[in-house]
Design brief:
106 residues; mainly alpha; two-stranded antiparallel ribbon; 5 helices; 2 strands
Length: 106
């Protein structure tokens, strides 16, 4: 969850309500976990409040950049030997499965 929060905030600072809305699919209704995750990020100096918006600190930007690099390296390692057509098909199937799961959850 912390990585997802950093990733979302890398695009732009958000109000607490907007951040909550974007991350709700990941956090669900567990408000204690949500508060704990945000408190941990604040405690580590990765996020800060600026003008009523939650923003990445300089350290937060650096850690997010590092995490993005690690994710991309892992993605390249995992997809080694898989053609672009195969990769696109796999993503398409996973996307349809996700949409089906969301539809069934309603």
């Amino acid at each position: 969850m912390q990585w997802q929060t950093l990733n979302v905030l890398a695009d732009a600072p958000l109000s607490p309500g907007d951040l909550d809305g974007v991350l709700n699919p990941f956090w669900g209704s567990d408000t204690r976990r949500r508060e704990s995750e945000l408190a941990a990020l604040v405690g580590r100096g990765l996020i800060i409040m600026v003008h009523d918006r939650i923003s990445l600190s300089e350290l937060g930007h650096a850690k997010n950049t590092e995490a993005q690099r690690l994710v991309e390296d892992s993605r390249l390692d995992i997809s080694m030997g898989i053609g672009m057509d195969e990769y696109a098909m796999a993503l398409s199937v996973l996307e349809r499965m996700t949409l089906n799961a969301e539809r069934l959850a309603r």
